[in-house]
Amino acid sequence: MSQQRSNDSYRMENHLSRWLSLLAAAGGAVFVAGLFFSPHRVWGGYLISMQLVTSLALSGMVFLALLYLARAQWAAPLQGVPEAMARCLPLGFAMGILLLFGLSNLYEWAHPAAVEHDPLLQHKSSFLNATGFSVRLILAFLLWMILGNRLLRFSKERGSQSWPFEGRVLRSSAVFMLVFTVTYSVTSFDWLMSLEPHWFSTIFALYQLAGMGVAGLAVAILLALHLERAGPLKGVLRSEHLHDLGKLLFCMSLFWAYLWYCQYMLIWYVDIPEETAYFVKRQEGAWWLVVRCTLILKWLVPFIVLMPRWSCRKRSVLSRVSVVVLAGHLLDLYSQVGPSVSGGVAIGLWEVGPVVGALAAFAWLCLRHLGQVSHASLDDPRLAHSLHYHTP
Amino acid sequence: MSSRFHYAKFESEQDFLQAARSCRSHNLKVVEAYSPYPVHEIGEILGISRSKLPFVTLAGGTFGLGLAMFFQYWTSAVDWPINVGGKPFDSLPAFMPVAFEMLVLCAGLGTVAALFWRSRLYPGKNRKVPHPRISDDRFLLMVEVQDASLPPGFVEGLWQQHHAVEAWTRAGEVQ
Q1: Which residues of B94-116 are buried (b: 16+ CB within 10 A; e: fewer)?
Q2: Which residue has the higher pLDDT, A55 or A162?
Q3: Any idea where the domains of chain A sit in the sequence?
Q4: Residue B96 domain-assigned?
Q5: Is A339 exposed, middle or buried (0-12, 13-18, 19+ CB in 10 A)?
Q6: CA angle, A192 as apex, A191 and A194 as ends, to 5°?
Q7: Whether residue B108 is found in the same domain as residue B157
Q8: Number of domains present in the structure of chain B
Q9: CATH code, B20
C-alpha cells in the first residue's frame, strides 16, 4: 500500500500554472482598462467575481466544518480539496478591500446626491453607508479567517489517536458555523441586496447560502476529479465518493431552486410594488432569458441528469454537470448584479474579463494549496472506512 | 425431489456477511437472509439485482404532479375562472406549491404501496418468524439444500466455521 501511495502529493503542471496566471493577469488588465472605459460594468463584473471567489473559499470552510461536525469519515481522502479552497480566502479579502474603492460605481446609496432626495435611503443610511459597509466587510473577513484557520490547523494533527472528533474540533466547527451564518447573511445584504437599496427580501441570505453551496460543491467535484487524474487520488477516489458528492450537489441545487421559487412566488403573489420592482426589472427583455437560463443550468439540468444512480457515479457525467452548474451560478450572480449596473443584458469583455481572471487566480491558488497537503494520508484513522463504505 | 432448509443464527454482522459469502461461493441457495437493520452488502453478496422501486417513485411523482397541475388549471381557468388579484387565470407560480405537495404525496404513497405489494405484506398477514431475535440483535441465514447433493455435515461445518451461535434444519416447502 505504501508503495502504491508514494505519489500522494500533487504538483501543478507547469503549462497549467502558466495558463492560469496568464488568464488571471489578463483579467486584471481588463479590469484596469475597464475602469477607464466602462467603470459601471467592470465594477459589476468585479463584484460578481469577488462574491464568487469569496463564496468558493467559504464553501470549502463550511464543507470542512460540516465534515467535522457530522463526524464524517467518508470524505477523509478528499478533505484536502475543501481545505485548499478554504485557504484561498485571503484572495477574496484582497478583492473585498479593492471593492471598497468602487462603491460609488455600484451602489446607489453611496451617492450623497441620491440619498439627499430619497427619504427611504436617508432612513437606511445608518446601515447603508460607506464606513459601515467597509467595517462590516473587514470584520466579516477577519472573523472568517481567524475562525477558519483554527479549523484548517486540525488537519496537521491527522494521525494522532484522539483526532479527529475531539471536543475542541467540534467546538471550533460549531463556532465557525454559527458566526459564518450570521456574518454571511450580513455580507450578502451588503454586497448584493443593497444593489437595489429600496428592495428587500428576508430570504435573501439563505438564497445566497444555497447558491454558495451549489457552486462550492461543483468546484470541489471538479478538483477531486482533477486530483484523481493527476495522481494523488488515483485508486482512492471511489464511485461511492462521487455518488455522495453528486447527491450533495443534487440536493443543494434543489434547495437553491426551492429558495429561488420561495422568494419569487411570495413576491409575485403579494404583489407589493416595493417588492416586485426587483423582479419587474428582471422580467423585462433579455433579463428574463438570463433568469430562465439560470434556472435551467443551475437546477433543471442537475435535477434531471443526476437523478439516476449511475450518472452520479460516472466521472464524465458528474464533471460536465458541475461545469454546467457553475455556469448557472455565474448567470445567477449576473442576473442579480447586472440589472442595477447596466440597463440591458450586456455580457461582454467587461463582465467576462474580471470573472475569468478571478476564477483563474482562484484555481491557481487552490491548485498551489492542493500541492501542499498530503491526500489520503495513511495515518488518517478515518481512511479505512472511507475506502470501504457502501452507498446504497 | 425433497430438500432441507438449514438455518444459522449469527451474533455479528461480519460473521453473517462472511457466511453469506461462503454460501455463495459454494453455490448454496440462500433462500432468505434476516437482519435487525438494513445491511447494504447482503443484497450484493446474494446477487439480488437492484430494486426497481425508484421507478415506481418517479412514476408516482409524475402522476401527482400532472394530476395537480391539470386539476388546478381546470378549476381555476376552465371550469370556474375567478379573478384573484388581477392575476391570469392559469398562473403557473400559484399552482406550484399544491403540485409539489401532490408530487410528494403520490410518490410516497406509491412507493409504500409498491413495497407492500411486492413483498406481499397486507394487514392481518400472519408471517412466520424463524427466530424471535432477528428483529432484535441476531442475524439469520436460511439455505435450501437438495437432499443428497452435499456430503452430510457440510452445511453444519460451514456454519461452525463462521461462528454461528445456533443452527437447525427443517424439511419441506418454503413457508
Answers
A1: bbbeebbebbeebbeebbeebee
A2: A55
A3: 14-378
A4: yes
A5: buried
A6: 85
A7: no
A8: 2
A9: 3.30.70.120
Domain of residue B144, residue span: 3-36+138-171
* Strands of B166-171's sheet in order across: B29-34, B139-146, B3-10, B166-171
> How many residue contacts between A and B have a Cβ separation below 8 Å?
20
Q: Chain B, 35-64: which have a CB under 8 Å from a chain A CB? A: 38, 40-41, 50, 54, 58
Q: Is residue B112 part of a domain?
A: yes
The pLDDT confidence band at residue B158, using thresholds 50, 70 and 90, is: confident
- ipTM score for this prediction: 0.76
Q: A269 in contact with B at a CB cutoff of 8 Å?
A: yes
Does residue A117 carry a pLDDT above 80?
A: yes
Pairing between β-strand B3-10 and β-strand B166-171 as defined by DSSP bridges: antiparallel
- Same domain for B81 and B31: no
> Does A327 or A233 have the greater pLDDT score?
A327
Query: Which pLDDT score is estimated for A159?
Result: 60
The residue with greater pLDDT, A386 or A244, is A244
Other CB atoms within 10 A of residue A35 CB = 16
Whether residue B47 lies inside any domain: the answer is no
Determine, for residues A392 and B40 on separate chains, whether the beta-carbon distance falls below 8 Å: yes
Shared domain check, B31 and B57: no
